Amino acid sequence: MMNLTNYISQGQYRYYYDQLTNKDKALYKQILYGFITFQESMMLSTGDIDRVLDVYHKICYDVPEIFFVKKLKYRPGMSIELLVEYRFTPQECLGIFEVMDEKCQKLKALTAGMGDVEKVKAGHDYLVHHVTYRDVGAPYSHEAAGPLVYDIGVCEGISKAFKYIADRIGLKAIVVSGMATGEGNPNGGGHAWNVVEVDGKLYHLDVTFDSGLSKNGAARYDYFLLSAEEISADHCEDPGQPICSHVYNYYATVGCLAEGKRDVVKMVSGMKSGESVVFQMPQIPAPEEEIVNAVWKAVQDAMPQSEYKMLMYHNKERRVFQLNKE
């Protein structure tokens, strides 16, 4: 019997498991064991399918290694028979795990001796620079294997991939779900991202959003270590998620908070062709158009129009600007 236990990170952080009752923990363990031993049928000690599906979804977020589970069916009764369809064979899984672990070993070596912030940044940057957001109807776009093996994925796959990396480089991370809102998503839409523990404090991290914003080779950190209040501008998390009350403020930490015209001029002066500058403006109560116009005027004052062609990108919700000089 194939058993993939050795491919699951030792000491894996399982936030959702920890929230369960003792009875549901036992069900969780039974279902997970069935998955990693490729059981096609499991007789469960409950007749409540809603309970079974709730536990299953918690396993999916806690244990990104079960990317090979494709579909569940069941036969109802006092004891449910859970029927499992797998998207990969055991041998195919072994090959996929080898590729995933090879990449994670490189990240583990790179982050050895780093603090939590640097580790989060390393995992974030790897996914931002290597993964293309794409759902091609492939069986792995929503799983950790998509980003880590095939360099493609959607938000769920990217957040599971970060969890997979975090488990192996000494970080506690959670996959969280909710809705993407804000100006870019007027009708809202299902979304997944991460919560990560940094030096004992919890923060939101949305690698997918940062990846979509990153242009011209410059990684963006608009959604890097945010509080619940900060991320609520364009995210709405589902109930039952951990509370993130701390503020990190990445751009201020790295000296890229522009508090006025003088700071903007200082940042863009001396830019060369092909270079990018990213900075954040304070969240002051002022019309957004007024802020954008002020930034653009500062750029024009810093460099005569005849000397450059400048492209400006603006994230309204986070009030972050990127300037690319061409």
Q: Describe the sheet with the most strands.
A: 5 strands, antiparallel
The number of helices is 12
Number of domains: 3
| Largest beta sheet: strand ordering | 9-8-7-6-10
Order of helices and strands: HHEHEEHHEHEHEEEHEHEHHEHEE
Helical fraction: 25-40%
- CATH architecture annotation of the largest domain: Roll
Described by the principal axes of the CA atoms, the overall outline is: elongated
Number of strands: 13
What is the alpha-carbon Rg in Å?
22 Å
CATH class of the largest domain: Alpha Beta
Q: Which percent range describes the beta-strand content?
A: 15-25%
Instruction: Note poorly predicted spans.
Output: none
Q: What's the overall average pLDDT, rounded?
A: 91
What class, by secondary structure content? alpha+beta
From the N-terminal CA to the C-terminal CA, the straight-line distance is 59 Å
**CATH structural fold name of the largest domain:** C8orf32 fold
